[in-house]
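Recap slide: Response regulatory domain-containing protein, sequence and predicted structure.
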Amino acid sequence: MAGKRVLIAEDSSVIQNLTKKILVIQDYKITSVKNGKQVMAALAKQPFDVILMDINMPIMDGMECARQIRSSEDPDVANIPIIAITGNARNYTMEDFKSVGINEYMQKPLDFDQLVELVKQYTEN
């Protein structure tokens, strides 16, 4: 687990900072971005073990970003586990998430114990 890389894509600074603090305590290396376009740029620079992605972000939302990640020609990028974080404002179902390649989703407000468990589950391989 030590040194596993987590990409947090979240436009809310409060949620981003809380998530970051909790995962840093767990010894994860964190990179934070605010929209899907920045996710794609970060993925082009370095590998990540898991992505925590807000669905409702400016510029490129989480659903479109997940589609682009899954269609990447780089298998290391295309297969990164994606955990969606959403207030589910648009009432997506798990089937909607699965259809774009999202592995799991968490409802806001976040249960940070559940978040840590999910991140561990997807990074222990």
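The domain at 5-123 is CATH 3.40.50.2300 (Rossmann fold).
The chain has six helices and five strands.
(End of recap.)
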